[in-house]
Amino acid sequence: xxxxxxxxxxxxxxxxxxxxxxxxxxxxxxxxxxxxxxxxxxxxxxxxxxxxxxxxxxxxxxxxxxxxxxxxxxxxxxxxxxxxxxxxxxxxxxxxxxxxxxxxxxxxxxxxxxxxxxxxxxxxxxxxxxxxxxxxxxxxxxxxxxxxxxxxxxxxxxxxxxx
Length: 163
Fold this sequence. Notes:
Layout: E1 5-9, H1 13-25, E2 29-33, H2 36-46, E3 50-53, E4 56-57, E5 60-61, H3 62-70, E6 80-84, H4 89-97, E7 101-104, H5 109-120, H6 137-148
Parallel strand pairs: 1-2, 1-3, 3-6, 6-7
Antiparallel strand pairs: 4-5
């Protein structure tokens, strides 16, 4: 089975490490870059399945990379997620123009990023494994009795009857 791949490009090493760990746990093959130049080189050499770019990075920015990807036939349809702390209308508008997904850093970034990655990469939604304890024999016997109890006629008593 060919693992899906992601490039995470951000100059914040802590964010890169955290997202890398979580993406790896999702089963993704992860590549990282700390500069825009390294991100562009990584995309050109190994064309990942999805790219996650910061806007402000050394040697360029994520929006410029996104623009370059749109002008290249090989990466024209590459899904891009812009992960940024910038919340201004111009940045959001530019993301939409470039057909990039916009995710704001801060808060629960992973809570927003993970479902987006699963949707883009068509991966099943994660569901926590819930252990099912074995049913004791007494409970199983009672459950089977309860399942057939509606076939048994039960007497109906009125309030006027005496006992």
